[in-house]
Amino acid sequence: MFRNVAELVKLAESKGCKISDIMIEQEMEVTGRSREEILAQMDKNLKVMEDAVERGITEDVKSHSGLTGGDAKLLQAYMKSGKSLSGELMMDAVSKAMATNEVNAAMGTICATPTAGSAGVVPGVLFALREKLNPTREQMLAFLFTSGAFGFVVANNASISGAAGGCQAEVGSATGMAAAAVVELAGGTPSQCAEAMAIALKNMLGLVCDPVAGLVEVPCVKRNAMGASNAIVAADMALAGIKSRIPCDEVIDAMFKIGQNMPSALRETAEGGLAATPTGRKLAEKIFGMPLKAQEED
């Protein structure tokens, strides 16, 4: 039904419906399943997200490496202290994004949105907004379908893989997906959803994938936190009427080309960036008992 964001927006506008409706229609057409079946499957995904967030903000989650865990709970406590500089909504989104990725790092069950390494942004934003916008269950499902529509475009026109395009392709894509979905949930138009996606993604361009010790923990968890905050700000900008000077599809194409030009050392190989710092190397040796490079050769 649609190949890019421009076609997606045009379809929604011509039919007088939301982007989430277009995505549901496409799923029905491609899979041959009924609307009820597709909604039921997405509801299962939503439940997985809910459980991961709840676990991350209430339990003492720790990864096997010891690199991550417990920060989501710290943020929740800080938020409730009333001392937060960035506000309760932002802190809630950030903590719930981190909660999801801490659960992922601890080998828990999460829902990839669009990848495991970037799985915190979309649910983090959604569950923080639940307290402010009081969406129905159906509206929460629509949020995920809108996110999926933009993720579908990125996956088919660029990349959602850190190994192929750096972290901009993972957390960057997730950030844009969440921003677009926020706009729809808050009552914005399809074109405003596209503006939010473009604004959010533009500010993640060039972000490298440099996991310390090759694990999806440092800096991945905190990058999801930053992605969640970026998504909310981008959505607010779009809802205010601000437009991206560069069209959304061109931003996605730029991300793809940047990823192609990115050195392999900065694309999930743990050979550059933060992974190559003295501390990053020491952590890798501590976890694996030998330099990471030597372990790979073995």
Explain briefly what this protein structure is.
This protein is mainly alpha-helical and 298 residues long. It has helices at 5-15, 19-31, 35-58, 71-80, 88-105, 121-133, 137-157, 162-165, 167-185, 190-202, 220-239, 248-261, 278-288, 292-297. The chain is globular and about 60 Å long.
* Mean pLDDT reading: 96
What is the CATH first-level class name? Mainly Alpha
> In one word, what is the shape?
globular
The CATH architecture assignment turns out to be Orthogonal Bundle
Structural class: mainly alpha
Q: Main beta sheet: strand number and arrangement?
A: none
Q: For the CA atoms, what is the radius of gyration? A: 19 Å
How many separate structural domains? 1
Number of β-strand runs: 0
pLDDT below 50 for ≥5 consecutive residues: which ranges? Answer: 294-298
Report, as a whole number of angstroms, the end-to-end distance: 47 Å
- Helical content (DSSP H or I, runs of 4+): 55-70%
Count of DSSP-assigned helices? 14
Order of helices and strands: HHHHHHHHHHHHHH
CATH topology: 2-methylcitrate dehydratase PrpD
Strand proportion, as a percent range, falls in under 5%
Molecular structure report:
- This protein has 14 helices and no strands.
- It is mainly alpha-helical and 298 residues long.
- It has a single domain (5-297), classed as 2-methylcitrate dehydratase PrpD, CATH 1.10.4100.
- The chain is globular, with a radius of gyration of 19 Å.
